[in-house]
Amino acid sequence: MNEIKGTLIPIGGNEDKGIEKEEMYTLEFVEEGILAHVVKEAGGKDANIVVIPTASSIPIEVGDNYLKAFSKLGCKNIDVLDIRSKEDSETEHALMLIRNANCVMFSGGDQSKITDKIGGTSIHKILVDRYKNETGFVIAGTSAGAMAMANEMISGGSASESFIKGAVNMYNGLGLLPDAIIDTHFIRRGRFGRQSEAVAKFPHLIGFGLAEDTGMIIKNGNDCTVIGSGMVIIFDGSTLTHNNEKILEEGTPMTMTNLTIHVLSNSDQYDIKKREVKVLPIEAPFI
Amino acid sequence: MNEIKGTLIPIGGNEDKGIEKEEMYTLEFVEEGILAHVVKEAGGKDANIVVIPTASSIPIEVGDNYLKAFSKLGCKNIDVLDIRSKEDSETEHALMLIRNANCVMFSGGDQSKITDKIGGTSIHKILVDRYKNETGFVIAGTSAGAMAMANEMISGGSASESFIKGAVNMYNGLGLLPDAIIDTHFIRRGRFGRQSEAVAKFPHLIGFGLAEDTGMIIKNGNDCTVIGSGMVIIFDGSTLTHNNEKILEEGTPMTMTNLTIHVLSNSDQYDIKKREVKVLPIEAPFI
Hints:
Chains A, B: Exopeptidase that catalyzes the hydrolytic cleavage of multi-L-arginyl-poly-L-aspartic acid (cyanophycin; a water-insoluble reserve polymer) into aspartate-arginine dipeptides. The structure is a homodimer. With about 290 residues, chain A is an alpha/beta fold.
């Protein structure tokens, strides 16, 4: 994945009012400020935007909600493409939409559904190819849609049991950002521990923890800029001096030392390959 | 606080079954393995142990529970001293108990009650004096009782709003461990963010995040050994290269870079002054 020309925008999810099971209640607020960035990166109001609510168990409502949210921002060329099976990922209609899109937006829900229904299909291949080769092509995703961008994808895991080996579950993602592990709803759901365990498992990868209403614009598959009202927590395991994850039995508490953490907020930048932070000068404006 | 001869044992609290408001339900399980360490450090079964349930809103039940727990371990000389006011901290009976104790054990509850009712009183002075000068004298505390040991004490704060400046509340603690900020119930209650903000406020202090059923035996006011079934998260802010906490307005998301984190578990050791971890060799037994 060298010389990436497309743009990736993972988003930490929206405000969830604490009612996880009732997805309907989470629909009220779609992060408009963040979506405005998505539209801008995709070329503006005339961009062809395809919303994929595959992760969701209520795809119609989620699709409608994004239609409304993008319409509010003045966009007119919006399609909802609900993929429910690998076969759905091979239809001519689906491939046409993905080929013509300036931006593909993955909704929240269950990230495993995204990789189960889309991973390895023609849609996946077109997405990877266009993301690699086309300047201005945008892949955005919120919550599950952001987590699925990684190669080593967090598919689940208990926040309260974390740091006990085996508390985090990993699965194959779409591999759009192979150097990172992405977690979302990071602050409200207390997901430090599970990201730490994920980084202990894959210390050569960077761990991103995205707060709600917060995202990153990633260019060149490498240069990240924080957008939104919250923060991005970055886990750099390259400094670890001790990490017993590999040798521990399941259910045993872990030891890891000298993990480096960055807390970044709006407009701060991060270079994945160099593992380098560029923080915003104090006087800079909010973007 | 140089040349400390006493022993400090902060404990992360017990298993809370997720019912925070109903303190009664949290009483079923008192961390026996950890209490066994407390008894051992205090000199064994014949030690005079004084339980102080001042932080609790149900001191009689909490006191009874500790009486039972210590009795189970074979201890016979256990007193419960419930301090409800600064005046209670000056009675001859109270001072006599504290003077004769081999171990004082602070219960959980609200840590501000401990410093409000005991801070600056004769009990506080005797505790500090004996802790400083008497080998084998033990001060233990669980949850609120552990948090109150610090000088800069976390008195409250929202876990879900953390990393937004002003989400954590600080107050004066008992100053028994002036180089540290202590937080408890660390994993289950997702308190990474508030400890990070506390360390951003006081980057010269070490932040300890104690999981439930987990504690540290601290000797010389400096040498920490992890005990119990969970983990201790250590925040070292001395490596920070950027920290805008001082200049940010309340309600603004923070930026901090190059925070060092250690995740320690049973028998791992930490030297506060040297900021140095000594992790357990793989083959060592559980203590």
